[in-house]
Automatic annotation (TrEMBL):
Its EC number is 2.6.1.42. This is Branched-chain-amino-acid aminotransferase. PROSITE patterns: AA_TRANSFER_CLASS_4. Pathway: Amino-acid biosynthesis; L-valine biosynthesis; L-valine from pyruvate: step 4/4; Amino-acid biosynthesis; L-isoleucine biosynthesis; L-isoleucine from 2-oxobutanoate: step 4/4; Amino-acid biosynthesis; L-leucine biosynthesis; L-leucine from 3-methyl-2-oxobutanoate: step 4/4.
Length: 353
C-alpha cells in the first residue's frame, strides 16, 4: 500500500541534544492510518505532527482497548540511519493486538511506515552518546460508543521523540523497591501484552516508591508474591556466582526485545544464561553468601540499567557496592555500539533505512 504524504511547512526548532530527557520533544511529522469497519486498514499517511480530534465517547477513553510499542532509530558516524530489530517490535505489536482484540496490521506496511517517517524526520535523530530517536507506534479503539465490547474502528499512529537517558540517573545504578502490596499482572491476564492498562495499573506503586526515593518497583508474581517478574519499564537480570538469571516468560512478563538481545549477546560471550522462575528468597540468600554479583534491567527506553540497591521488607540488598558492574558495562557498550553502528553487527540485528 502506498503511503500518502502531507508536507509540514511549519517546522519546529530542535531541542538541545544535551538536555533531551525522555519523551518530551516530538518531531515535525507523524504517521496515521485508520481501520474502518468493513474496509480494513486504510489511508496510511505521513502528515504534520498535530493534535487529533476524537469524540468524547471514543471507546479507548472508557475501556482502554489500546496497545503500543517502543523502538529506536540511531544515526551512525557516517550519517546512515539504523533501526534495531524492528521486526521483533512489529511481531509483538500484532501479538498485543491479538490479545486485545485489535485487527492485525500488515507487517511490511508497519516497517515501511516506520522507515519512511524516520526518513522524513531524519534531521531530528540526535547523534550524541546515549541519545537516539524513540519511535512510538500505538493503536487504539475509536468507535463512538459507551458499552463494553470490541471496537469496530481504530487508529494506528506513529510518533517520534528525540531522547536521552530514560532515568535521570543516566547509566548510574538505580534504586529499586520490591513491591509486595500491589501486583502488575496475573496468570491469564494481559501482562505479556504491551497495552496501556498494564502501565496505568503500575502507577500507584511506582509513585509511592518514587516518594520513598526509588526509581522503579520490581514486581513479584501476582499469585504467590514469591517470584520476581519485571521492573516498571524493563526486564530484569540477576547474576549469581557465574550464572546470569532472568525470569522465564510465563505470560505475565513482557517479552522484551532488549531482554532477548541481552540473552543472545551474553551467551555469545560465553556466559551461562538461564531463564527460569527466580524467588526473592534466593536473591537475598545469594547476597548473604556473597554470591550476588550484579543486577541490571534491560529495555528499549532504559537500554541497560545497572541496579545498585533493591529494598525488600525494609532491608537493603546492596549490589556490587552500589557501583556499575563489569557485565552491565560491557553489555551496555556492546549493545549501544551495535545499535549506533560503532561495533560490528555480527548478529544482523540492525537495518539500514
Ligand atoms: C520501552 O522501553 O520502550 C517502553 O515502552 C517502556 C516505557 C515505559 C517507556
Amino acid at each position: 500500500m502506498e503511503i500518502g504524504f502531507i508536507e509540514n511547512i511549519d517546522k519546529k526548532s530542535k531541542p538541545n541534544q544535551n538536555q533531551l530527557g525522555f519523551g518530551q520533544h516530538f518531531t515535525d511529522y507523524m504517521f496515521e492510518m485508520d481501520y474502518i469497519d468493513g474496509e480494513g486498514w486504510v489511508n496510511p499517511t505521513i502528515k504534520p505532527y498535530a493534535p487529533i480530534s476524537l469524540d468524547p465517547s471514543a471507546m479507548v477513553f472508557h475501556y482502554g482497548q489500546s496497545v503500543f510499542e517502543g523502538l529506536k532509530a540511531y544515526r551512525t558516524k557516517d550519517d546512515r540511519v539504523l533501526l534495531f530489530r524492528p521486526e521483533k517490535n512489529i511481531e509483538r505489536l500484532n501479538k498485543s493486538n491479538a490479545r486485545m482484540c485489535i485487527p492485525e496490521i500488515d507487517k511490511e506496511l508497519i516497517l515501511k511506515a516506520i522507515s519512511e517517517l524516520v526518513k522524513v524526520d531524519k534531521d531530528w535523530i540526535p547523534n550524541q552518546k546515549g541519545t537516539s530517536l524513540y519511535i512510538r507506534p500505538f493503536v487504539f479503539a475509536t468507535d463512538y460508543y459507551v458499552g463494553v465490547r470490541q471496537s469496530h474502528n481504530y487508529k494506528f499512529l506513529i510518533i517520534l521523540s528525540p531522547v536521552g537517558a530514560y532515568y535521570s540517573e543516566g547509566f548510574n545504578p538505580v534504586k529499586i523497591f520490591i513491591e509486595q502490596q500491589y501486583v502488575r499482572a496475573v496468570k491469564g491476564g494481559v501482562g505479556e501484552a504491551k497495552t496501556a492498562g498494564n502501565y496505568a495499573a503500575s502507577i500507584k506503586a511506582q509513585s509511592e516508591a518514587k516518594e520513598k526515593g526509588f526509581s522503579q518497583v520490581l514486581w513479584l508474581d501476582g499469585a504467590e508474591h514469591k517470584y520476581i517478574e519485571e521492573v516498571g519499564a524493563m526486564n530484569i537480570f540477576i547474576m549469581i556466582g557465574e550464572e546470569i538469571l532472568t525470569p522465564e516468560l510465563t505470560g505475565s512478563i513482557l517479552d522484551g526485545v532488549t531482554r532477548r538481545s541481552t540473552i543472545e549477546l551474553l551467551r555469545a560471550s560465553g556466559y551461562q544464561v538461564t531463564e527460569r522462575k527466580i524467588t526473592i528468597d534466593e536473591i537475598i540468600e545469594a547476597q548473604f553468601n556473597g554470591r550476588l554479583k550484579e543486577v541490571f534491567g534491560t529495555g528499549t527506553a532504559a537500554v541497560i540499567s545497572p541496579v545498585g540497591e533493591m529494598w525488600f521488607e525494609g532491608q537493603k540488598i546492596l549490589i556490587n557496592g552500589g557501583e556499575v558492574g563489569n557485565v552491565s558495562q560491557k553489555l551496555y557498550d556492546q549493545l549501544t555500539g551495535i545499535q549506533t553502528g560503532d561495533v560490528e553487527d555480527e548478529f544482523g540485528w540492525t537495518i539500514d533505512i
